[in-house]
Amino acid sequence: MGELFTFFGLISHDHAFIYMTHMLLAAGIVILLARLATSNMRVVPTGTQNFLEAYLGGVLYMGTDVMGKEEARRYLPLVATIGLFVATANIIGVIPGFEAPTAFLDFTLALALVVFVYYNYEGIRRNGVIAYFKHFLGPVWWLYWLMFPIEIVSHISRIISLSFRLFGNVKGDDMFLMVILMLAPWLMPLIPFALLSFMALLQAFIFMMLTYVYLGGAVQIADDH
Question: Could you tell me the CA-to-CA distances from 145 to 47, 56, 141, 142, 151 in Å, in that order?
């Protein structure tokens, strides 16, 4: 959003530059958190280690409800990393002078493609090509001709759903923040900032939940119908 002031925008107003710098900033923060949590691990966790262990426990609990504990633990590294990355990227946009990388469609589309490719790959790897695509046909043989293209379109639409949902919500939050700062630039609008922070975390939760749902549907096809 060109009208929104950013510190990196003082260097260049180029769209790609603004996007890449904020994305690298979010990645750097995530890597720093991981380093702090693992640099001096203790049996009784404290500080960053305690925070990330609680976070991982919450993500695992969420995945257990979707696909069982064993499967949720298998995919915990992917889902937890994506969630932490998205949450950090969203929170950055709440801070005046920075823009959320998730407010760029390039970022959200890339994440959606990663999830799409990976869950299909896991579905094929775990079940085999024939069995995986056979479950696209549905349970009724005489509707195979109709169900297969519907399932293909449904799966492709997940890319649009994942990317545009996250992009649209964060972009809207950025515009809302811009209006708030224009109306009250010298006051701390605590309620809007708290609301935007909550929405940032909520969007990360939704992205993680959908990732688990798509993975569960791909690897547990025997229970689909």
Answer: 56, 42, 9, 7, 11
- Buried b vs exposed e over 150-186: b needs ≥16 C-beta within 10 Å? eeeeebeebbeebbebbbebbbebbeebeebbeeeee
In a domain, 2, yes or no: no
**pLDDT in single tens digits along all 225 residues of the chain:** 445 678 888 888 888 898 899 999 999 999 999 999 988 888 888 889 999 999 999 999 999 998 999 999 999 999 999 999 999 999 998 887 888 999 999 899 999 999 999 999 999 999 999 989 888 887 887 888 888 899 999 999 999 999 999 998 888 877 777 777 677 655 556 677 788 889 999 999 999 999 999 999 999 875 544
Q: Per-residue DSSP letters for 111-124?
A: HHHHHHHHHHHHHH
The domain total for the chain is 1
Domain for residue 192, yes or no?
yes
Query: Which domain covers residue 118, as residue numbers?
Result: 8-223
Residue 1 within a domain: no
Torsional sign, CA 160, 165, 170, 176: positive
